[in-house]
Amino acid sequence: MLNSKGLLLFDYDGTLVDGSIGIHEISQKTQEALKKARENGYLTVLASGRSIGMVEPVKHLFDGFITTNGAYARILGKEYHNQTIDVEILKKMMQFFSDKHDKIYANIETQDYAYVTRMGSALYEQIMEYFGLDRSKFFAWEEQYDTGFNKLTVMYKDKKTYQELEDLVGEELEMIDHPLEDYAEIMPKGCTKGAALTAIMEKTGFPREKIYAFGDSENDYTMLEAAGTAVIMGKHSPIVEKAADFVTLKVEEEGIVHALKHYGII
Predict the structure, then answer these.
(1) What is the CA radius of gyration of the chain?
(2) pLDDT for 167-214, tens place per residue?
(3) At a CB cut-off of 8 Å and minimum separation 6, what does 149 contact?
(4) CA-based torsion, 207, 210, 214, 217: positive or negative
(5) Which DSSP state fits 196?
(6) Rounded to the nearest 10 degrees, what angle do helices 87-99 and 159-169 cross at?
(7) C-alpha to C-alpha distance for 162 and 103, rounded to whole angstroms
(8) One-character DSSP codes across 206-263
(9) How many CA atoms are closer than 13 Å to the CA of 263, on its beta-carbon side?
């Protein structure tokens, strides 16, 4: 049993930061609010599409992680969930990327680092810039199939190429497309943030009613639905509205601080 007043699960992109408007760092006010919540007896958990290695500068703000869209989870140093992509499926995708390297690009991610199909390509630069990523965590792909990978992030030039990839492996993997940004996320079958949260609850006995989830987009929906209290950001995908208990302010308006005060957590 986790000894805590409650679990606070925070999505990263679109919830704690917003790269679409140039906010790549968690604000000082939000950092102070997370610290205060911990002092008040809550556990803070980052629930992100990113891996742990991709959020290195803010790791100290969290007691636990649900990462790579739910493929991996650990709290207070204990691992509760770890799904990896089948090697044969990965080989099939890597051949596809090799054949269409000028049209599609991928980061192949573990929790600590990522390999990239075309280091220095225009698509590589585009995704580095969009997410404000730490380049020291990225290395050239050299068929490292013996490493367990939790997720791929794919950047594409045209929708047709992505649809070809979807036709190739869509039945074997979870695929989340973000068409407005021309990128997609690919995880093991059955992988969702909600599934990872459910695994934590089942293995710890932590009560659902003491879990608060904060998010904004499609990949947060299962987590928001599984939590006892679901908070969505002022700017959000219409899909998550069905799961929401409370709509807070936007990232740039300190929406997390506002929500934590609303629920008396800080």
Answers:
(1) 18
(2) 999 999 999 898 778 889 999 999 999 999 999 999 999 999 999 999
(3) 84, 85, 90, 108, 109, 110
(4) positive
(5) H
(6) 150
(7) 9
(8) --GGGEEEEE-SGGGHHHHHHSSEEEE-SS--GGGGGG-SEE---GGGTHHHHHHHHT
(9) 26
Single-letter amino acid, residue 4: S
Beta-bridge mates of residue 10: 46, 214
Strands of 173-178's sheet in order across: 138-140, 114-116, 104-109, 151-156, 183-188, 173-178
Could you read off the pLDDT of 110-168 as tens digits, one per residue?
A: 999 999 999 888 888 888 888 888 889 999 999 999 889 999 999 999 899 999 999 99
* Helix locations, the chain, DSSP H: 28-39, 87-99, 122-131, 159-169, 193-204, 221-226, 255-262
Which tokens in the block code for residue 184? 């997609």
Cα-Cα-Cα-Cα dihedral sign, residues 139, 141, 142, 148: positive
Amino acid letter, 116: V
pTM given for the model: 0.90
